Fold this sequence. Notes:
Elements: E1 2-8, E2 13-19, H1 28-43, H2 58-72, H3 74-87, H4 91-95, H5 99-137, H6 148-180
Antiparallel strand pairs: 1-2
Helix pairs in contact: 1-2, 2-6, 3-5, 3-6, 5-6
Amino acid sequence: MTIVTHYDVKSQTSVVILKHRSFNDLPKHLKTELKHKLLDFIVNPSTATLAANPFSLHLLHFNSTIQYYRRAARDPRDSVRKEEIKAHGGKAGVGEIDLRRLHLTLTSLDQDKVQLNFILGVISSLRVQHDRFYRLVKGIVDPDQRDWLYLRVEEEYARFENQITYFKTSIEDVATRAQRL
């Protein structure tokens, strides 16, 4: 799911557009969880202060996305590990290596890497837009003078970048191990 926000300076309101795209890749329970989070965010009066920063809404989506990739990264790693165990089991083990499974795993890893690079680009762009929002719309040029919500959103964006980079590195490592087989 891509979340696009448009801030109207005159009315000081944000219009939030939810574009379902990568949302379809999420497992059902994460989709349901994300829908509930978004509904709570919009309906609950206690989150009204968060609405002052339209970028805070993106955090809900990226938390679910990171959960998905954390869980999804286990399958290829376990699959390659099984084939490595076969390869190190002697001559009979090398013949038992499932090349079809390795090829499919590598294809899946390549696709995941492309998606993670795209997500890193989106997060990077959001960070630039977040800074511009505070400089141009809110008129606060100095990052040290910005409110707690700005700092919290930036902290989360940094955490997302670090986790996605870690997953990407892990995928590259698993792909390298699979290619060695």
